Amino acid sequence: MTREEALAQLGASSAHLRGQAARALGTLGRSGDLTRLRKALKAETVSHVNYALQDTIRRLAHQQQPDLLTVDDADVIPGEVRQQIYGQAVEWITGFLLHEIASSIGLVRLAGRRELGEFWDDSETKRHLESVNRVFEAIETLKNAAAVPRPEQFDLAALIDELISTYPPKTTEWISTIGARPCLIRGDPSLIRMVLVNGLRNAVEAQETAGRAPQPHDVTVSWGETDVDYWVSVLDHGAGINGPVETAFEIGNSTKKNHTGFGLAIARQAVETMIGSLVLEPAKDGGALYTARWRK
């Protein structure tokens, strides 16, 4: 495919051809093609083509200004800008993986059911495929955690109550809450939900495996705000943190059964998407303290 053919195919009715053209222009394109590429990106509705166009635009824009960023300049990029760039990269990569993997998983499941018949439900194939599917769902959640925030006003206290109520009564007996009611804030409730779900789940599981019967206030969820940010913390009195704290945030790092190891990475990405930070540290009297803060 020549450069001229690729430019012409950007307007093709076939998403496959548009994707081929977008990828080809990553090699064949020139900085003068950026206007047409951006126009095509604005009109593109198919995700994998959209990602290919974004990648090509980034490549050509870099060629246009090769000396814009030096090693010394990189040292003075604000942290929040680095977070945004990283978030964009996560969203692009996870989106590409989801597009490539989704159909394959479906085809494997269909073939397995057809070939194994009545033996499917008890098969190792089904068990391993369910494990792959959990990773797929975790990648999808990670992509959503990196998406552009959609802020709205909502009650943070009500969201926390809703999440706690998903646990059985015997568990909620030892979960305490401290914070203003109502606590009306402006933010993206879906991103904040990701942060809270992970913190609360880890705290409850730590308490349930602590080797003793849970006591009232063993898990405490607190929230509030300052002049510049909102915050929420989850404190537990479980066994504490095993190993270096930073490794807990690495994707795939989990010692728990049926856990993908994406939880903390998803929570951190969700907070950083809101221009914030997530800290996991040992608690004063044992256990762990999980604190998220994000900008107003």
UniProtKB/TrEMBL annotation:
Q: Mention one GO molecular function.
A: protein histidine kinase activity
Is Transferase a UniProt keyword of this protein?
Answer: yes
Catalytic reaction(s) noted: ATP + protein L-histidine = ADP + protein N-phospho-L-histidine
Question: This protein's superkingdom?
Answer: Bacteria
E.C. no: 2.7.13.3
Q: Which UniProt keywords apply?
A: Kinase, Transferase, Two-component regulatory system
Could you tell me which Pfam families the record lists for this protein?
HATPase_c (PF02518)
* EC primary class: transferase
Is Ribonucleoprotein set as a keyword in this record? Answer: no
- Ranges for domain Histidine kinase come to 96-296
Q: Name one GO biological process term.
A: phosphorelay signal transduction system
Cited InterPro entries: HATPase_C_sf (IPR036890), HATPase_dom (IPR003594), His_kinase_dom (IPR005467), Sensor_HK_Regulatory (IPR050736)
User: Under what name is this protein listed?
Assistant: histidine kinase
